[in-house]
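Lab notebook: predicted structure, single chain.

Context: the supervisor wants predicted structures on file for every construct in the current expression panel, including those that have not yet been purified. This is the next one on the list. No modifications to the sequence; it matches the entry in the shared construct table.
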Amino acid sequence: MGREDISACLGLKARILQALKDESAQTDSETRLQTLRLIECAIRDRDVCARGRGEGEGCPDTDVQRVLKIMIAQREESAGEHEEEGRLEEAIREREEVSIINAFLPQPLSGRALDIAVKQVVDDLGASKLKDLGRCVTELKDRYPGQIEAASAGKAVRTALTQS
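Prediction complete. Output recorded below exactly as produced.
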């Protein structure tokens, strides 16, 4: 969506709150505003729980990503149920909400970007044998949280290690 002009340097919670603030000033998308409010409420709930455990800053971005993934899964399941019951308008709305929520999640690395990340990790770790595969994939997951799919990363690392 064209409105995601929010600075990439902001944390995930700050980006969501900024999007909610921006959307509140506009009136063109009720679905987007309602979805952002639901996201903010879910995050606030997790923050309260985190503070109760003594984590003064609230929940970290990894927890927020987990919440967003859960919200997406719930909406996809609901959309499927609505389609089975013939309620297509509700299914379309659920899928709209999925796309709104999905916009805040980091997109998985693939193609050239994944190859560059793999090459960098292999070089940094001095990996040269297939036995280094697990170590490389773990490092990729650490460097690019939420952006690495294990299967595609494993394949890319395997290719990089066999070519070197």
